[in-house]
Amino acid sequence: MGKGGQDVGKSGKVGLESEENRDVFPAWSKDVKECEAKYEVDVQQGLPAAEVEKRLQIHGHNELEKHEGTSIWELIVEQFKDTLVRILLAAAVISFVLAWYDGKEGGEMEITAFVEPLVIFLILIVNAIVGIWQESNAEKALEALKEIQSEHAAVIRDGKKISSLPAKELVPGDIVELRVGDKVPADMRVVSLVSSTFRVEQGSLTGESEAVSKTVKPVAEHTDIQGKKCMVFAGTTVVNGNCMCLVTGTGMNTEIGKVHSQIHEASQHEEDTPLKKKLNEFGEALTMIIGVICALVWLINVKYFLTWEYVDGWPRNFKFSFEKCTYYFEIAVALAVAAIPEGLPAVITTCLALGTRKMAQKNALVRKLPSVETLGCTTVICSDKTGTLTTNQMAVSKLVAMGSRAGNLRSFDVEGTTYNPFDGKIEDWPVGRMDANLQMIAKVAAICNDAGVEQSGQHYVSTGMPTEAALKVLVEKMGFPGIVNHDASSLSSETLRCSGLWNKMEQRIATLEFDRDRKSMGVIVNSSSGRKVLLVKGAVENVLERSTHIQLLDGSTVELDQYSRDHILQSLHDMSTTALRCLGFAYKEDLPEFDTYNGDEDHPAHQLLLNPSNYSSIESKLVFVGLVGLRDPPRKEVPQAIEDCRAAGIRVMVITGDNKNTAEAICREIGVFGQYDDISLRSFTGRDFMDHPNRKEVLRQSGGLLFSRAEPRHKQEIVRLLKEEGEVVAMTGDGVNDAPALKLADIGVAMGIAGTEVAKEASDMVLADDNFSTIVAAVGEGRSIYNNMKAFIRYMISSNMGEVASIFLTAALGIPEGMIPVQLLWVNLVTDGPPATALGFNPADKDIMKKPPRRSNDSLITPWILFRYLVIGLYVGVATVGVFVIWYTHSSFMGIDLSGDGHTLVTYSQLASWDRCDSWKNFTVTPFTAGAQTFNFDSNPCDYFRSGKIKASTLSLSVLVSIEMFNSLNALSEDGSLLTMPPWVNPFLLLAMAVSFALHFLILYVPILAQIFGIVPLSLNEWLLVVAVAFPVILIDEVLKFVGRCTSQSRHSRSTSSKQKSE
User: Fold this and answer.
1) How many Å from the N-terminal Cα to the C-terminal Cα in the chain?
2) EC number(s) per UniProt (predicted)?
3) Which of 193, 454, 474, 769 has the fewest other C-beta atoms within 10 Å?
């Protein structure tokens, strides 16, 4: 809103009403004189300049408000509200401080000490950048809305016409002239028609499938937006005629302004996706678990850094070791690093990105990554009708011609749903043998027509009125006398060849324009017979009323008797009840006034054509030849898609701005309703629904629902109520009127071809082919992606639980730390990453669209799955700690010789009390080898438990990596055995395992990397030990899966039997 916009509603001046007062004065229900009086303006003179300035101060400029976006600082803070991110941030800060402290205290200030905090900081920074980028795109819909506003207007002020006034300077009361092609600059009341007809394309705002004829006559006060025939709305386009209008609303007080407010309001209430909510819940639970385990680790090890003596029964002489305290604090930090799957955000983003590529191949273009997953739990699809369920291309579906005698009619079904002339044919058509009656119908349809059809890429588009374009397509399907092979190859050079031939044969010399009174259009042509002929098309009842004869099959004419008239009207009734829009065709050969007329303006007949009131008399005594039924037909693939939705447990609701009868007919045809269903409680207009005493009860009904004549606020209310009921809502739309609901829905789906930029920017996904069935395919893909995400979340979390168990057991047993934080970070980020990502390529279940959708509050991890995680995690902990202990205490294990490196064996009790090594007498350690290195401990044998643990630590790390690779095979299926779902069903997983092992070998056998990670190369025997300890994780999970399958079948059979008993 421009200057003074905030003062709207604060003035009490007559004619300068506030939002409330403007609602009290409905201009559409008042005649022109009342409107002039209210707005204190003369239609002929317009507003004086001084009054314009006053109104501009009060109402502000005619432009939409500029809402302040979220500041960059607020966006940054928003990224760190996630629980997992906060834990990571705390762990990174503490790691950094401890590394710095160790260096200051005389330790080695090595880069390895800072690798862990720096890597975590890097992860957090990248995560924040991605989040900020996504958030900053959120308000693009409001900017796109401003693009559809008109920039200039032709205005009358002070009795003079200003042909190009900046539209933002318009004020209520201004008089504006509108012409063909103009974009309406404000909401206005039509005060006079300059042309006989005036039509506006307002479908993007109201959802209507055809251009609307406007009138000067007032309508009822409580009429919905579609019924306001005397109003034109900002952002719509004039397609026919010109008129004078009075501005009634500007800026935010227009219908498009209301949409702007609704989009802004909807953007303020955007919710997290179901997966993000579950991950947040998981993060909070993880925080508690980490806190408890860290506290336990400290309590178990408090004896190592805090000792005291009892004197007289009371603790005295406390001794505190700060060095050991910080050591165990580092273990707690390592525990936090181990517990958090740092790679999870990256893997989820990668999986979603891969999902967007798959969906793009199916013509679904995803604009916001999280919406890929949300699609998988969609429970309700609220679909627009026009352009989504239907083609948004008018097509003739029935042709009725005259028979061989009076009262005898012939009916032909016409195939095809698009403007493609080669899409379908006419059933039972006499190809190459068109009789005189059919030729006359083709002639009228081709010549009494101002539209055209052009090929645009792979699609055919109309120019002019859609109904007329459909008639041109019908003419091509009818063919031309003498042309038999009418196909795409023979006529590829010219889309409308037959229409062109008719127009060459019959030269058009005059046009009797359509008007709303006679409801017909006529053209006068120079016939090939040398006579002047009038060809007429229009509303069947009107054309029939002015007809006196009918043309029979052979071209002869007979008088139109009551019997024939009744037959024609019955045919019209039958077609109308199936929501077909009908047009009648007629001609007249007796035109004595025009016998010598050739278009010359000086000819006396030309004067007749200048006055539209003469058209009815010229179009009298017609010969009726036939009629056609047109409609915006449903897409061929939609009925199957609706059936797929039903099988998948997804309800389909149709919400359209179109006529109720038309919408109900389409819904019956595509399967939303059955052919004979009673739909009185399932089909509502938007107003009826809003007035219903129990709207939620209406929405809870099973099966499909229809809401016709719906306005933007109705769509928003339906979406809001569904979300309150716990439904996950996907909303489709293409118009400006759909944008608020698209923004509010869990998944906003816009049309790529017919959709406005406003709708696209407000959406989460764009359909490249505008096809409803693409949404259904995308839902299936979303379900598959969610299942795969569950697989890698299952994999990563079970792996992390193993790391936690490892660190906890290390602390509980009091043995040296097996793995350092930087090693755990490497495993979580790099080694686990490829297999987790590869699990995103798991093939979809064949019955994925036969199962009901998961509820958005379904648990990500069931109690049974959690138990499995704990069992697997415990084994990982035992295996990694066990192999560490084995190396120190055994020279061989399971027949594998481990003495080749010459390391010294110790007892378990020595290993568990390694921190008291300084007090041991005669403790010596022999040197041992690792690769090309030799480790010698002559100066301090106790270093054998510090720097000397490098080989045991390497074994622990290698066992952890190997177990996690084998565990990724377990994650292929939640309950399916590897025998039924072998590893090669997902070759990407095998490749990923190879990559992860290769990365592990890289850090083992490249000296500089081995030094950074504090590890050494392993021998062949040591690798055999690693595999022997790691492989049982597959066997353990196979047993657990078997138990899971048995209990699942038992539960299923019990529920089935109880259901049967109840029946």
Assistant:
1) 64
2) 7.2.2.10
3) 454
CB 826 within 8 A of CB 1002: no
Q: Which range among 100-114, 440-454, 595-609 shows the weakest confidence by mean pLDDT?
A: 100-114
| 626/410 Cα distance (integer angstroms) | 9
> Which letter does DSSP use for residue 816 in this model?
P
Query: What is the edge-to-edge ordering of all strands in the sheet holding 152-157?
Result: 160-166, 152-157, 175-178, 243-249, 187-193, 231-232
Q: Which of 182, 384, 644, 770 is catalytic?
A: 384
- pLDDT of residue 980 exceeding 90, the answer is no
pTM over 0.70: no
Secondary structure (H, E, C), 870-929: HHHHHHHHHHHHHHHHHHHHCCEECCEECHHHCCCCCCHHHHHCHHHHHHCCCCCCCCEE
Worst-scoring range by mean pLDDT, 642-651, 875-884, 895-904?
895-904
H or E segment and range at residue 391: none
The DSSP result for 158-193, as a single string, is TTEEEEEEEGGG--TT-EEEE-TTPBP-SEEEEEEE
Q: For the chain, what is the largest distance between any 2 Cα atoms, rounded to a whole number of angstroms? A: 136
Instruction: Judge whether residue 102 has pLDDT over 50.
Output: yes
- Residue among 5, 141, 139, 145 nearest 71 (CA): 139
Long-range contact pairs involving 17-22 (C-beta distance under 8 Å, separation at least 24): 17/172, 19/253, 22/172, 22/248, 22/249, 22/253
Q: And the tokens for 444?
A: 């009228």
Residue 860 tokens read as 């990500």
Q: What are the residues whose beta carbons fall under 8 Å from the beta carbon of 462, sequence distance 6 or more?
A: 393, 394, 419, 451, 452, 453, 469, 470
Strand 622-631 and strand 547-551: the pairing is parallel
Q: DSSP secondary structure string, 648-716?
A: TT-EEEEE-SS-HHHHHHHHHHHTSS-TT---TTTEEEHHHHHH-TTHHHHHH-SS-EEEES--HHHHH
Sign of torsion over alpha carbons 647, 648, 650, 652:
negative
Rg over alpha carbons for the chain, rounded to the nearest Å, is 39
- Residue 436 exposed, middle or buried by CB count within 10 Å (0-12, 13-18, 19+): middle
Q: Calculate the alpha carbon distances from 68 to 96, 138, 142, 757, 760 in Å.
A: 38, 12, 11, 21, 21
Mean pLDDT of 157-176: 89
Q: For 947, which DSSP code?
A: G
The predicted model gives 952-977 an average pLDDT of: 87
pLDDT digits (tens, 9 = 90+) for 731-741: 987 777 778 88
Instruction: For residue 462, list its beta bridge partners.
Output: 453
Closest by Cα among 828, 817, 825 to 952: 817
Res 1060 pLDDT > 60: no
The closest of 825, 809, 826, 818 to 949, measured between CA atoms, is 818
How does pLDDT run across 653-685, given as a tens digit for each residue? 999 877 788 888 889 989 999 888 888 889 998
Q: Is 384 considered catalytic here?
A: yes
Q: Are 665 and 578 in contact (CB under 8 A)?
A: yes
Question: What average pLDDT does this structure show over 876-884?
Answer: 92
Q: Please name the amino acid found at residue 412.
A: F
CB 873 within 8 A of CB 802: yes
515-565 pLDDT, tens digit per residue, is 777 889 999 998 887 889 999 999 999 999 999 999 999 999 999 999 999
For the record, the structure tokens of 760 come out as: 């696209």
Are 256 and 235 in contact by the 8 Å Cβ rule? The answer is: yes
Q: Name the pLDDT band for 362 (thresholds 50, 70, 90).
A: confident
The residue with tokens 């038999």 is: 484
Q: Which of these ranges, 36-45, 170-179, 763-772, has the smallest mean pLDDT?
A: 763-772
Q: What does pLDDT average to over the chain?
A: 81
Strand-pairing partners, residue 716, are none
Q: Crossing angle for the helix pair 712-724 and 255-267, nearest 10 degrees?
A: 20
What is the spatial distance between Cα 568 and Cα 627, in angstroms, rounded to a whole number? Answer: 9
Contact 996, 965 (CB under 8 A): yes
